[in-house]
Amino acid sequence: MYEYRQLNPKQQAELVEHRLSLGYPAHAPPHPVKDRQLYFLSAACYEHQCYMHSESRRQQLLNMIFDRFGDGGDDKESAEALTTNITICAWAVLPNHYHLLVQVVNFDVLSELFRQVHGVTSRQWNLEDNTIRRKIWYSWSDRAIRSERHYYTTLNYIHYNPVKHGLVTSPYDWVESSVHWYLQIYGKQWLRDCWVKYPVRDYGKDWDV
Q1: 188-197 vs 179-186: helix axis angle to the nearest 10?
Q2: 93 has which bridge partners?
């Protein structure tokens, strides 16, 4: 989105035409791989504004994610329509974005689930801040997990994300993270061994091709 703004009108038109030729949406992130079971999902606040500045908002988002992703919605009709059997394997919610590592049965329902979660939080936070029609969320993106190494390195990347962004000095100091669940279930030594075996390094720069 931000690079697009730096282009001149001719370059913008060429980029949109190229995306459409690939079958991608004109501006939203594409979702080309839909036949895997494991995915790294990310969603960001619009223009990376810190709309989740409080622990209460971050926890509210987490609760909603587990409620909606777990049963497909609040009412019976939506639950039946969005039965997904989604397992959330890891998570981290930061002030302006969040990451999830999930196992899914039906990829196609993810768009509706994100729409629900982002729609409800947008309305509530705008009411809380006495703001009308403010855009809270940009969009969400996905990356299919391709190997065991990719899976565990993604797990480490998610847990290290608050440190990466300078919010804390240790992953264990960030509340809205699954690192505490892993610490309780597997112990600190397991987490250390996982970090040594699957270091993050240049995650996201084709290291896992």
Answers
A1: 110
A2: 98
pTM: 0.79
Length reported for the chain: 209
Domains with residue ranges and CATH for the chain: 1-30 (no CATH), 31-197 (3.30.70.1290)
Residue 83 in tokens: 């039965």
Task: Give the residue with greater pLDDT, 178 vs 32.
Answer: 178
Amino acid identity at 4: Y
pLDDT tens digits for range 90-126: 999 999 999 999 999 888 889 888 999 999 999 999 9
